[in-house]
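Worked Example 4.2. Read the sequence first, then its structure tokens.
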Amino acid sequence: MGEENKSNTQKPEVKKRLHRRNRHKTKYNFPKLIEQTPELEKFVSVNKYGKETINFFSAEAVKILNQSLLKFDYGIKNWDIPSGYLCPPIPGRADYIHHIADLLASDDNKRIPKGPVIHALDIGMGANCIYPIIGHCEYDWDFVGSDIDLTSINSAQEIVKNNSLSVNIRHQENINHFFRGIINPNELFDVTVCNPPFHASQAEAISANMKKIKNLKGEKPNKPNPSFGGMHNELWCEGGELRFIKNMIKESKQFEKNVLWFTTLVSKHGNLKNIYLALRKMEAFDVKTIPMGQGNKSSRIVAWSYHNSYERKKWVRER
């Protein structure tokens, strides 16, 4: 009886690499998820370690899990994405938003900023609209989401409309621009977020997909797995992550008065040196690197501001 009581009161295992405010820092509670999303049940099974999980090689299973998590943890009852578009891992996306909240708090005596007074811009929001969803639901921030892909724009608009979210969707008509054509002349943003395309070519993206499958399954696949897929503009661009970020940094200089903090996810550690050089060239006043981790994967956020500490605190006071 004592052992049974001990197991019943045992604290859930915590994913220590996730942010302390991340709702997903413990293992997924599949019984509760299934209770409010019954269609998830057929995708849940017990693995060889005796733990409930889903088949992450199934695109349908991953999408249903995301729908369930968004409904259970964020109250998003209507979320879907077009076939073939990127279905993001929600815990990692949530971590980005929580770290950004801490970044903004660093200019306001560590007070976590909440409410629509905070204006955030997501560059390349995708069809899933995940950063604006989490930012709005966790902190009630006012979001603008931009994308070059019209299908992504239409998908995000449906998500926003069907869930009454405070997100303004804008189409970036020029694939060579990031902020130009999106930020209006007198518009101010407290922060921008971005998850850049990772690969430099379609062939590289396919190779990475198949390598991931091999590492997970221990066998060589015959074709890429759609669960790890996405549209080409979501996965790769000419020059890959580094060129994308360097071009974004260069253009950010033109909007130094409009934005308090620019940020981007950087997946490849080896790109940091050249990113720092680009920021130095653009005379960014303050640069911060924020480490992130999910499972065995490590990444980081690079944030830069053209405002000094006094100017940032003044920005916060006047906001």
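Now turn to a second chain, presented in exactly the same format:
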Amino acid sequence: MPYTTLISVADLVRNINSPDWLVVDCRFDLANKQWGRAAYAESHIPGAIYAHLDDDLSAPIVPGVTGRHPLPSIEQFAATLARWGIDERVQVVTYDDKGGMFAARLWWMLRWLGHEKVAVLDGGWKHWLDAGQPVSADVPTRAARTFTPRPQLHLEASVDDVVAALNDPAIKLLDARGADRFRGENETIDPKAGHIPGAKSVPFMENLTPDGLFLDQEALRTRFRALLGDTQSRDTICYCGSGVTACHNVLAMLHAGLGDARLYAGSWSHWITDPDRPVAMGEE
């Protein structure tokens, strides 16, 4: 059985030496964009390669047109995956040191191109270390493979889909940012504060226990059912500041057995590129 949402440290340890497994270190710091690469160079899970949020998991920003982390083209990202040695046989495991906030982005992107054998390491780097597992500074050499994309475009929501949702009570918008940013009280990243009208505040960090593990499936189901009511995941659009932490909510919902929500990859930083798009402040 492939791992498709989360994987424990113990299960990774049992399989880590398989040639058809690949671990990807996604550590990153929005305030210091080279920190994650330096941390990887110092020590990482043995055999892991490094994925940089800006360089590998995003396309270049076009000021006034894109959000802060636009998706690369399907062709570009498929070439990256092939270079990393991923094909349909490979089980990918992603991790970071921020509760999965960056690892979930790569998890979602692989599924976006039709690769379902991908899971986020529950507890990430901290729990790997806490379990006394080995680390390495060696950068592995991995042969390229042929990656054939099978785009799952139903996992995306366009900005037009979001605009349409403003007047459609059957569609739910979930905002993964902190509640203060949602309310427009503490915006230090994007040039305009607030949220998309009608969205619900669903901070991604509340998917986790105080120790940084994901809540169990029943707790996650309870959390999201309370927010969604009778709305199905396919009628739910997740967003955040730039299409990164929203993937955490998509992952949590799928792990809870609620199915696939859609991702508005441009998110808030894209929404505000058009001054005519409405903005809400406060709790509602």
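Notes for the reader: The first helix runs from residue 9 to 15. The longest strand covers residues 21-25.
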